[in-house]
Amino acid sequence: MLDLQKLRMFVAAAQSRNFTRAAEQLDLTQPTVSQQIQTLERELGVSLFERLSRGIELTAAGRALLPHAEQMIALERIAEQAVRAAAGQSERTLLLGVGNTLATYALPDLLQRFNWEHPAFVVHIGTGNTEQLLAQVISGEFELALVGSPIVHTQLIIMPFLTTELVVIVSPDDPWARLKQINIEALHGRRMLLREEGSALQASVSELLNAQQIRPKQPIVLGNLEAIKRSVEVGLGIALVPAMAVRREVAAGRLRQIHLANVPTRRVYNVVHHRDRHITNAAQLFLDLLRKPLGPDTNE
Questions:
Q1: pLDDT tens digits for 228-246?
Q2: 297 and which of 34, 90, 179, 244 could share a cystine (Cβ 3.0–4.6 Å)?
Q3: Counts for the chain of helices (H) and strands (E), in that order
């Protein structure tokens, strides 16, 4: 019998293409995820992943298992919702997926406000990049997801709720540290720290750079924004990040923030939900909260 816990680890690893990121998403250690996936492979008698120097890739057996594993996990959620509905709890429970950047820099304030306004409601949260979360909303694992842009999907309703500026960050010792703004062409040839494929931030940055034919020098790809900020602090390169993500570091003098002068740099964050599924009371109240002004970094 297939173990759902092992299947969750397998799906997380398949979606992130990395055991460490899968472990972070599931709040587990990397050795635990690796060992459990190896156990699953022994139980099935097949290899599910190719272990490569640059990461992991699904084998043919892994690709065959993935859609069934995702369906089994979604069915577990649906069964759980059915039980809650029978007990009168489903309408007061929100299943919320949150992008990695928003989970760190916007979610705590949102949860505080939601809990203050609706203390009887429960929120279950999962995190991931935009590509993962959209798939989980479509499958029914999450009812709402807070994600970056760009997004286009016919099965989803997309509502903007937060806007921030993309800024260049550099270390205090960088030659650009005293600049207030630069033209985007100046980024050509600089080493840049970037998010991984599947991240909405990576998609926005790539779209901005490609439109101006900017080619970073020896880019470094990292799986989360905190790692990017720390790498910039120690002088490994520069990065384009949301201004809301670096307020504290800029205020403390650990990073310098530079505005781009000649291109649009406003970045929009969205809440999405399935077009054809019932909206619970909990989800509706959370949507109502997101329609209110969220703070000084927005232009609602």
A1: 999 999 999 999 999 999 9
A2: 244
A3: 11, 12
Q: Is the pTM of this model over 0.90?
A: no
Token look-up 């709402």 returns: 144
Amino acid 295: pLDDT = 56
Residue that is written with structure tokens 């935009």 in the block: 130
**What CATH number has the domain bearing residue 249?**
3.40.190.10
Which of 21, 41, 74 is the endpoint of a domain? Answer: 74
CATH, residue 8 = 1.10.10.10
Query: How many structural domains comprise the chain?
Result: 2
- Is residue 125 included in any domain, yes or no? no
Residue 108 lies in a domain: no
Q: Among 74, 91, 124, give the residue marking a domain's end.
A: 74
| H, E, C per residue of 224-264 | CHHHHHHHHHCCCCEEEEEHHHCHHHHHHCCCEEEEECCCC
How, if at all, do strands 181-182 and 256-260 pair? parallel
| 155-204 pLDDT, tens digit each | 999 999 999 899 999 999 999 999 999 999 999 989 999 988 877 788 88
Residue entry with tokens 């980024």: 187
Q: Which pLDDT score is estimated for 143?
A: 95
C-alpha to C-alpha distances, 28 to 20, 191, 263, 269, 271, nearest whole angstrom: 9, 32, 41, 28, 27
212 falls within a domain: yes
Domain that holds residue 253: 164-267
Distance CA 230, CA 235 (A): 9
What is the rounded distance in angstroms from the CA atom of residue 103 to the CA atom of residue 109?
Answer: 10
Instruction: Using the predicted structure, report yes or no on whether residue 89 has a pLDDT greater than 80.
Output: no
CB atoms within 10 A of CB 150: 12
Q: Which helix (H) or strand (E) holds 5?
A: helix 4-16
